[in-house]
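R.M. (postdoc): so does anyone remember the format we settled on? I'll just put the structure tokens first.
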């Protein structure tokens, strides 16, 4: 089970925690996260085009 990471602190501390978390991931886990971000970005991009065409 993963440990809970609290999201409070200075921006520098939060950035350091995030970098440490990313460095602890395997290459495959990093790739999966990147692909998820790309998919969401693509859905938002296409969703905005579809919404603007309906109006």
């Amino acid at each position: 089970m993963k440990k809970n990471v609290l999201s409070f602190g200075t921006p520098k501390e939060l950035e350091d925690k995030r970098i440490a978390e990313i460095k602890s991931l395997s290459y495959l886990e990093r790739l999966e996260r990147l692909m998820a971000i790309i998919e969401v970005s693509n859905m938002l991009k296409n969703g905005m085009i579809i919404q603007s065409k309906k109006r």
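R.M.: ...and that's the designed sequence above, right after the tokens. Also worth knowing: The two ends are 47 Å apart (CA to CA). The CA atoms of residues 7 and 14 lie 7 Å apart.
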